[in-house]
Amino acid sequence: MPSILSRYATPFTTGLFRISLISGIALFFHYGTTAFREMHEWLSLVLILPFVLHVWKNWRPFLAYFKRLPMTLTLGLCLVTGLAFAWPAITGSASGSGGNPAFAMINIIAAGTPGEVAPLLGRSEAEVVDGLKQKGFAAADGATSLSEIAEASGKDNVELMATLTALKAK
Predict the structure, then answer these.
(1) In the listed set 40, 67, 91, which residue is the last one of a domain according to the structure?
(2) What is the pLDDT of residue 102?
(3) For a Cys-Cys bond, which of 32, 74, 167, 170 suits 131, CB 3.0-4.6 Å?
(4) Is the CB of residue 149 less than 8 Å from the CB of residue 160?
(5) Looking at the domain assignment, is residue 96 inside a domain?
């Protein structure tokens, strides 16, 4: 059994790395995000096992790298680079919410009143209030924020945004 694992460790590492590489590049350029995201996440996790088997198979040559300066410098550089990308999120100093900008925009819109949002929908304040009431947002009025209207009506911001989107489409 170990010889089978040993024979396939490097080929699986190579194959899964290629998948991770191609899907990672596609994700970076926002190409086929739906097709590549789950593939990239799961198969990158699967890559861990053949990587560990590859290192185990090549343990002596691998240890020899640590006796030379390039391995230390490279690992240090990779650590610093990774921390530089993660630091804003770790410390909370990221610009904006640090999350998905679409969700941040939903919160910005939901903080507005029907009158403030109406021009975005090409509607009047009265049309927005009426449209909300027709879709079950009973607490709708012109002076209350959309998120407060949703909460008072027992609904969430997703239902609110779906209703507003339908009003825009009319």
Answers:
(1) 91
(2) 76
(3) 167
(4) yes
(5) no
By the 8 A CB rule, do 68 and 45 touch?
Answer: no
Instruction: Give yes or no: residues 83 and 140 share one domain.
Output: no
85 shares a domain with 130: no
**Residue whose C-alpha is closest to residue 132's, from 108, 167, 170, 105:** 167
* Helix, strand, coil abundance in the chain, percent, nearest 5: 75, 0, 25
Find the helix or strand (DSSP H, E) in which 133 lies. Answer: helix 125-134
Confirm if 145 and 111 have CB atoms less than 8 A apart.
Answer: yes
The total domain count for the chain is 2
Please count the residues of the chain: 170
pLDDT digits (tens, 9 = 90+) for 90-144: 877 655 545 667 777 888 899 999 999 999 999 999 999 999 999 999 999 999 9
User: Hey, what amino acid is at 67?
Assistant: K
